[in-house]
From TrEMBL:
Topology in membrane: Peripheral membrane protein
Molecular function as annotated in GO: ATP binding; ATP hydrolysis activity
The protein's name: ABC transporter related protein
GO cellular component: plasma membrane
PROSITE patterns: ABC_TRANSPORTER_1, ABC_TRANSPORTER_2
Key words of the record: ATP-binding, Cell inner membrane, Cell membrane, Membrane, Nucleotide-binding, Translocase, Transport
Record-linked SMART domains: AAA (SM00382)
TM ranges: none
Signal peptide: none
Subcellular location: Cell inner membrane
């Protein structure tokens, strides 16, 4: 079975080691919840993994990475920017093609914000911005997702729905989550990070929230 072998992952800031060295394998088909208290190293690890995957995954970064001046449509379309030629992307900037409009409108409808299609990202609320970054990741249609707290600004039912969409669409996912119950409900494997090291690594089905609370 294919998957990813990550070896010798390390990160330091100002000479201080904040991650690793870490080595672990992610099997194809796994949905991994990265948990651990603030400052444990989850965001840094997500960035390291994205680098190791040569940017070939769909990414929802913590800062979301939206272009404020551009409409939601174009922010979502950016998920496929490197899958088209310059001509197609330039035309899209001025006069988007119907198939892209239809596909992005459908995604936004699922995410509850179809009316925002032509609104600049700057005019959106935090939760709406998060949904645009999620739509961009879904639109990219990569088999693997890396996401850093992708549902932190969403209310309960929408958060549940987004986690279901992400685990349904992506074959393999690694998602940093502060909501332990959400990680247990939607992920197949839980990796707990503590001081830049793996302190827990088990199938979600074998864990309870109490087992994970020792990390906090
Ligand atoms: P988490 O995502 O689990 O909250 P982070 O990966 O953001 O953790 O941070 C891990 C450690 O690295 C923390 O001690 C944090 O202060 C430090 N760190 C993260 N980013 C930077 C940065 N740009 N400069 C200096 N230290 C950083």
């Amino acid at each position: 079975m294919s998957g990813f072998d990550f070896n010798g992952l390390t990160a330091s800031f100002d000479g201080e080691r904040v991650i690793g060295p870490l080595s672990f394998r992610i099997n194809e088909g796994e949905h991994v919840g990265l948990v651990g208290k603030s400052g444990a190293g989850k965001s840094t690890l997500i960035r390291l993994l994205y680098d190791r995957l040569d940017s070939q995954a769909s990414l929802v970064p913590q800062g979301l990475g939206l272009v404020n001046a551009l409409p939601v449509f174009h922010n979502v379309f950016m998920g496929q920017l490197d899958q088209h030629g310059t001509w197609y992307n330039t035309v899209t900037l001025i006069r988007p093609f119907r198939r892209d409009k239809d596909a992005i409108r459908a995604l936004l409808t699922e995410l509850g914000i179809p009316e925002k299609l032509w609104i600049p990202a700057a005019a959106l609320s935090g939760g709406q911005r998060q949904r645009v970054a999620i739509a961009r990741a879904l639109y990219r249609q990569a088999p693997t997702l890396l996401a850093d707290e992708p549902i932190s600004a969403l209310d309960g039912p929408m958060a549940q729905q987004v986690m279901t969409m992400l685990t349904n669409q992506f074959t393999t996912s690694i998602v940093a989550l502060h909501d332990v119950e959400m990680a247990l409900a939607h992920c197949t494997r839980i990796i707990g990070i503590q001081d830049g090291q793996i302190a827990l690594d088990q199938p979600a089905s074998e864990l309870t929230a109490a087992d994970i609370s020792v990390l906090y």
